[in-house]
């Protein structure tokens, strides 16, 4: 809800801007609102859905396709009717509907105890539990000690709320973050330069705009189908989503070379269909693969870090493409560069995850947590005794003569369990 307020406020205030500097400031406000709306919604969806998580992610990505095909048309209509200031006002009111969406979202009840926190969070909490020093003692430490304390507090904060430790400890997350970050360098650039490329080669403006409409329609039609397909039981827990995602990246990248080969309407129509199909699969699996790569308790921080990394390449991609057009004078080189960038990211993900899966198979199944086995004591004149629950969920057998209650040795260090002994009479 806060994200909806900030994004709507940023758009409304942009209508009152008089200089480009003021637009920069209002854009930062609106962008912050987008971040506060986007990341919590994806995180909550991962908590709401467990068995059909792939279906939910793929179906929710249909909204991206819907916006891709409708918002440009809406923006052009508003610009012609109300001007750019009036367009900002209308779009700001539209973004306030995010507050309504946030109001209907309900947090789930806590199902996990504090004992299930990750080791990283425990270590970070241990570092943060420093004794509180009085004001007089703090004044005596000096500036150097204060800076050291502030730096250590910053490290603790980053370890608890960011996923930098996952880049070191989780090789699958590290590979995925690198692949997606590199992918974003050329993934959205064709969407920016497709219409200028077509018009520069003699195509009419209306037919060039029709290509973007076809791209949006393909996404709208395919993403629900992908949601149903990836939600089938045979795909759950199979670990194949990352390979499907990587193959879709490879196809998406290679399709850009088709676009660069010719600029006729028929060729570009084939290009946008292939690009739209692969883009639908990529959008459907982008967050599903991340949810399979990290634990859900670390998913918000992992998503935040990977969004920050990919935003950097997403920001510099179009300007670099513009510099390439200025230096060469041809739009086709932009599509060739995007083809190399996106397809190489797909090949990298295939090779990296195949190598990690091979290593996992060679190492064998992961060692299970240490569990004490039930203690059995063979004593005459006793048949059996049953422990209701022990560590690991298995019953313990303790054979003790002429007893009513005894303490099961396997529960040492945990909560005690009473055992009832039945003796021979």
From TrEMBL:
<dbReference type="InterPro" id="IPR011701">
    <property type="entry name" value="MFS"/>
</dbReference>
<feature type="transmembrane region" description="Helical">
    <location>
        <begin position="27"/>
        <end position="50"/>
    </location>
</feature>
<feature type="transmembrane region" description="Helical">
    <location>
        <begin position="302"/>
        <end position="321"/>
    </location>
</feature>
<dbReference type="GO" id="GO:0008028">
    <property type="term" value="F:monocarboxylic acid transmembrane transporter activity"/>
</dbReference>
<feature type="transmembrane region" description="Helical">
    <location>
        <begin position="88"/>
        <end position="108"/>
    </location>
</feature>
<protein>
    <submittedName>
        <fullName>Solute carrier family 16 member 5</fullName>
    </submittedName>
</protein>
<keyword id="KW-0472">Membrane</keyword>
<dbReference type="InterPro" id="IPR050327">
    <property type="entry name" value="Proton-linked_MCT"/>
</dbReference>
<keyword id="KW-1133">Transmembrane helix</keyword>
<dbReference type="Pfam" id="PF07690">
    <property type="entry name" value="MFS_1"/>
</dbReference>
<dbReference type="InterPro" id="IPR020846">
    <property type="entry name" value="MFS_dom"/>
</dbReference>
<dbReference type="InterPro" id="IPR036259">
    <property type="entry name" value="MFS_trans_sf"/>
</dbReference>
<feature type="transmembrane region" description="Helical">
    <location>
        <begin position="62"/>
        <end position="82"/>
    </location>
</feature>
<feature type="transmembrane region" description="Helical">
    <location>
        <begin position="333"/>
        <end position="356"/>
    </location>
</feature>
<feature type="transmembrane region" description="Helical">
    <location>
        <begin position="175"/>
        <end position="196"/>
    </location>
</feature>
<feature type="domain" description="Major facilitator superfamily (MFS) profile">
    <location>
        <begin position="1"/>
        <end position="360"/>
    </location>
</feature>
<dbReference type="GO" id="GO:0016323">
    <property type="term" value="C:basolateral plasma membrane"/>
</dbReference>
<feature type="transmembrane region" description="Helical">
    <location>
        <begin position="208"/>
        <end position="230"/>
    </location>
</feature>
<feature type="transmembrane region" description="Helical">
    <location>
        <begin position="269"/>
        <end position="290"/>
    </location>
</feature>
<keyword id="KW-0812">Transmembrane</keyword>
<feature type="transmembrane region" description="Helical">
    <location>
        <begin position="242"/>
        <end position="263"/>
    </location>
</feature>
